[in-house]
Amino acid sequence: MATKASRSAARTMMTPAVILLLGWMLVPLIMTLWFSFTKYLPLRGDSIQRGLEWVGFANYSRFLSSSAFWPSVQTTLIMVGGVLLITVVLGVLLAMLLDQPMWGQGVVRILIIAPFFVMPTVSALVWKNMMMDPVNGIFAHLWRFFGAEPVAWLQDASLSSVVTIVSWQWLPFATLILLTAIQSLDSEQLEAAEMDGALVIKRFWFIVLPHLARAITIVILIQTIFLLSIFAEIFVTTGGAFGTRTLTYLIFQRVIDSQNIGLGSAGGVYAIILANIVAIFLMRIVGKNLDA
After folding, report:
1. Span 140-191, pLDDT tens digits
2. pTM of this structure
3. What are the residue ranges spanned by the domains of the chain?
4. Is 144 in contact with 151 (CB distance < 8 Å)?
5. 255: nearest Cα among 20, 9, 37, 40
6. DSSP letters of 164-213?
7. Do residues 243 and 78 make contact, with C-beta atoms less than 8 angstroms apart?
8. Contact in structure between 177 and 167 (CB atoms under 8 Å)
């Protein structure tokens, strides 16, 4: 049992780390809030002499009144939802497949998990040039082999193409978490259900899927936190064109076009609000599943 002295020593040792973590989080947030109420043009020479110009809520109003704001929010949510759907469904199927005994099981697991360690920029370049290029891409050669006209994926099916690229990156993460959950399932339950004559689909629906509920909610929560800030894949592939401009990319474009850090900071605050709304919604789902 921990004594009063040991608890005091633990608090003392943890204090520097907590202070550093709070500073790491709070300082950028406070600076973002401050800049969002100012007109800050560091890329222009006159801003060095004039400094910050207080504009109040003008940046927020300007960003919100933009015709691209709500479409970018919609694109962000569609992209996040599409990636979550693909990674969860395929993750469950791959986890169940990898849980079966097979030759070279360890090598197969490593190959499936490997894409998660590839940098987003690199994977986007590979998909853009090697897979989806309408002239020399692998998909183009396959289409020609079957006598069909190659598809310009990043133009004709841009949003679904970006979703595919991001899903390919995050599928290993979902598979790894779900595989760990499946391996903790009591095999005696499945054997008993099989002896009672339950079909494979019923065993999956009533035994396997409820057991994976917690793992699925954790996968959804963690992935959503990172997917709301998708940027590199869009920058490399479409540059925000063809309906792939997310809120994060819109903030980037507004800063580049106006060279106003204050306008971009206001967009960042909107992104924080959107992330918190989604996080609260997901936390309620996670809380229900964890309490079940």
Report:
1. 899 998 888 888 888 888 999 999 999 999 999 999 999 888 888 777 777 7
2. 0.84
3. 30-291
4. no
5. 40
6. HHHHHHHHHHHHHHHHHHHHTS-HHHHHHHHHTT--HHHHIIIIIHHHTH
7. no
8. no
- Identify the CATH number of the domain defined by range 30-291: 1.10.3720.10
Three-state DSSP at 54 gives strand
Under the banding of pLDDT at 50, 70 and 90, the label for residue 229 is: confident
Least confident of 38-52, 76-90, 108-122, 198-212: 38-52
Collapse the DSSP code of 106 into the 3-class scheme (helix H, G, I; strand E, B; otherwise coil) and give the result: helix
DSSP state of 131: I
Task: Give the whole-angstrom CA distance, residue 248 versus residue 160.
Answer: 18
Q: Identify whether the C-beta of residue 255 lies closer than 8 Å to the C-beta of residue 263.
A: yes
Contact 189, 254 (CB under 8 A): no
* Other Cβ atoms within 10 Å of 66 Cβ, number: 15
In sequence order, what are the residues at sequence separation of 6 or more whose Cβ sits closer than 8 angstroms to the Cβ of residue 231? 246, 248, 249, 252
Higher pLDDT, 26 or 4: 26
List, in sequence order, every residue forming a beta bridge with 38; answer none if it has no partner.
Answer: 54
CB burial of 70-85 (b: ≥16 within 10 Å; e: otherwise) equals: eebbebbeebbebbbe
Question: Three-state DSSP class for 41?
Answer: coil
How confident is the prediction for the chain on average, in pLDDT?
Answer: 84
| Parallel/antiparallel/unpaired status of strands 38-39 and 53-54 | antiparallel
Nearest CA to 155 out of 214, 93, 35, 237 is that of 237
Cα separation of 274 and 250, whole Å? 14
| H or E element that contains 38 | strand 38-39
